[in-house]
Amino acid sequence: MHQWSPSDWLYHAEGGKHAIFRYRPSAADKSNCLAEEHVAGHVLRIPKHDLALSYAVSGNASADDNAALATDHEVSNALEQETKSFLFQRDVVQPLLGQRYLDLPRSVVLPPVFCAQLYQQAIASGDIPSSRLQSWRIEGSEMKSTSNNYATSKGVKATLLRDHTTLIKHPRFPDQPMAKQNVISVEIKPKAGCITSSPLVSPKNRCKYNRTRYSLQQQLMHLGQVQKGWRAKIDQHAEIQNSKPFTPSNYSPLDLFSGNISQIQTALTDLSNHMQNNFRVFSNETQIFGEDISPLEGERKDILDTLVRQCRSSACKKHDENRSADTILLDFICSVVSKVLHREELLRNLLSMQLLDVIEGDGAIRVYERLVYLCDGSNSKAEELLDEAMLFVDKELTEQPKPPRLRGNNLAISPYALPNCSILHSLIEEMDSFQSHPENVMNSSNEVCIQLVDQLSQEGCVYLLQNWLLSLAMCDVSFFVTFQCLADDQCTVEECQSIHDGGIMHYDVEMEDKAPRTRTMIHYEVKVVDCDAKPAKKLRSRTKVEDVFQFLTS
Fold first, then answer.
1. How many Å apart are CA 58 and CA 74, to the nearest integer?
2. Do the beta carbons of residue 452 and residue 426 sit within 8 Å?
3. pLDDT given for residue 238 in this prediction
């Protein structure tokens, strides 16, 4: 029986709630057949709260401690479990986003001692950003109240995912170099690609009609009204008090989702100029660009020359003598990624799902309050109802009544059945006719919609919140564009990505002035991650999230 060792999993990255560990076995473990079958080329995604609690309960764990080893029997039994996250992604997200763009997660259950060792390794690595360290801690009172139950639990639920900084060989390229060589991977958080047109926007928050939510949040961060977890918090008692001033990004999600290749490249360039937590670049699985991260001197040219061997560094230098090596490399990467995104359907599909939000955050608060009222004033009951409803899709969409096509949204593609609620239908019609000007019309429509919300049935509330939560999840995803440059003579066919294989495209490399272009073949994959459903309990604190927009006037 083979075993998983914590020492084979290295801290790689993290978000607000989860940490990512990449599989890096020792030489002695590389022949492990279980590893080859299940975990080679994969990462583990584990809630940081559970890692911290495992460490608090299990105490210090040695990497050699047998208790920290997870057997293949324990893990393989959990791999096929259909968790709520799995069902949501398979039944709700995949059919709309495209099966080729989303690999379904596999659930694993890990021993607490195994997770305690991962926690120790991550903290000791020194790779955790200072601004994230607080999320790896739990309060003593919480630990005391939960440790007894936790110690006797079956284990920690985690997710096994493909490592999308690597490529799987394409069948058209039998002589393709190892998929880990000369591979560039770009991780992008696209954000919401639209501006709301919902009449349920609060009068005090009408700045939302003029700019994207991302642009407004950039201004709020600049003003100090919003603090993001990836940025170091300025604290006079903390070591990180000398955090540099925040510089807003010029990135516009409208450009990225425009469908125009020139605007897509502009969006990527703007992201690369101020990466923040929304743009990261990996070369052969190692991060080379990100917030405050860039390659060492000399590495830039090596990476670029290795990517496109026909593009001699001397030619690049002559043609781009006034630009830095970082800029040359990023421009090349952004150019390739923009062409990939323009030819694939991901952005169009993602935008259609984002447009399922017809009530906006302010409206979601009111609809949630109505649902709680209809659930006898119980927040828990309302949230349980909504969380369950998120997984209940309409299996026979063609036989169900459809809402009218609304301006600026896409409810017609909703995976959820439209309930037979006349008030809901009237509300949809009022939102359809809404115009965001003049102000007296805006006020009138807002009042009418609020009155209708206060008469909605339970089913009507659930339907609107289902679509809002689905849209919210799609505004918070990340996707990877991973590619490798190959010799042009290896294949003459161009094709888009399929369920089983990546895409193939030609790319013309710009040479020095008056020199002919050089053509290279590019093998790529586009994959979406972080597609979990948003829990309904997020609605409890939504008022605080939306009220901050009142500080902006435009």
1. 19
2. yes
3. 42
